[in-house]
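Re-run with default settings, no changes from the original entry. Doing this only to confirm the output is reproducible before filing.
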Amino acid sequence: MKKSLLIALLLCPILLGAQEKHTLSGYLRDAANGETLVGANILLKEPTGQGTTTNAYGFYSLQLPAGQYELVFTYLGYEPKTTAVVLDKDIRLNVALEEESLQLKEVVVTAREEDENVRSTQMGTVGLAMDNVKKLPALMGEVDVLKAIQL
């Protein structure tokens, strides 16, 4: 009994050491001009799927147990970069991303003359036949043309 207790006490520090966490940190920058990339994503592919984003200075930090990891660095407008890391101590890993250029399809712009949609210079008109005007009630024996137009 005493021997098993002694063995368990000796193995406890080893088990605790296996759970020791290390820090993986660094800066994410533009490869062309060295400008820091704010809000970029850093994701672990396997096994945890953990991740983080860079702060206002382009700095990121992850605390992970010792092991081998595959990191994916992504930022909008830049090509994703995958890096394998063996984490057995604290590591500072600075990464530079290349800009991603996308070739868009061509755009054809066509135009019409400014007044092409105008058929005539006359503003809106309404036709009013004299027969219809004569059918309107007359005021003092005569048909009022202005009243007919207003109707």
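The chain has a mean pLDDT of 82. The beta strands are 21-30, 41-44, 51-53, 59-65, 67-74, 81-87, 91-92, 95-97.
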